[in-house]
Amino acid sequence: MSIRVQDAAFDMGAELNAFSQALADNGVKAGAIVSFCGVTRDVAEGDLDAMVIEHYPGMTEAALGDIRAQAMARFSLAGAMIVHRYGRLAAGEIIMMVATAAPHRADAFAGAEFLMDYLKSRAPFWKKEITTRGESWVDAKDTDEAALKRW
Q1: Which residues contact 33 (CB under 8 A, 6 or more apart)?
Q2: How far apart are CA 61 and CA 147, in angstroms?
Q3: DSSP labels for 68-88?
Q4: Based on the structure, what is the number of domains in the chain?
Q5: For residues 123 and 150, what is the distance between their CA atoms, to the nearest angstrom?
Q6: Domain boundaries, position 14
Q7: Pick from 99, 84, 102: which is nearest to 4 by CA?
Q8: Cα 115 to chain center, whole Å?
């Protein structure tokens, strides 16, 4: 299964179908497939114009590969996919997606949540919000750090 970091938009339905088909093509039998898509959102002030996401090519993919491998082993996943965008994204655009497959739903859900918590707090992406008030880098949130403690 794949890890992709890209600037282009993607179709989450097509991604999920391709993930499911790749499992079947490889003879993988999963009892559950879970997916999650994150959307660039403006919940605080209501004036977000865009978010700019930066990363270091190579380093980012390696870090995502490591956390994917951890999730695969920890939750006995049959497959896991991460797609994350970078560049300038308008409010409401899909920013990322994870999909996991496992024999049982509990592991598929837990694996997806594990990946999400990592992506939110530890993945090497830097985010800048562009609002009607100006630009500012997004700081880490205490709630995101606290979410990691359950793992």
Answers
A1: 16, 19, 20, 23, 99, 100, 101, 108
A2: 22
A3: HHHHHHHTT-SEEEEEEE-EE
A4: 1
A5: 17
A6: 3-148
A7: 84
A8: 7
Residue 101, burial from CB neighbour count under 10 angstroms (0-12, 13-18, 19+): buried
Distance between CA atoms of residues 125 and 67, nearest Å? 14
CA dihedral for 47, 142, 144, 138, sign (positive or negative): positive
pLDDT in tens, 37-85: 999 976 566 788 899 999 999 999 999 999 999 999 999 999 999 999 9
Q: Encoding tokens for residue 31?
A: 């009892």
User: pTM of the prediction?
Assistant: 0.91
In 3D space, the residue among 68, 81, 72, 78 whose CA is nearest the CA of residue 37 turns out to be: 81
CA distance 82 to 18: 13
For residue 143, what are the CA distances in angstroms to 86, 96, 111, 120, 121? Answer: 23, 19, 19, 10, 10
Residues 6+ apart with CB under 8 A from 21: none
CATH number at residue 28: 3.90.1170.40
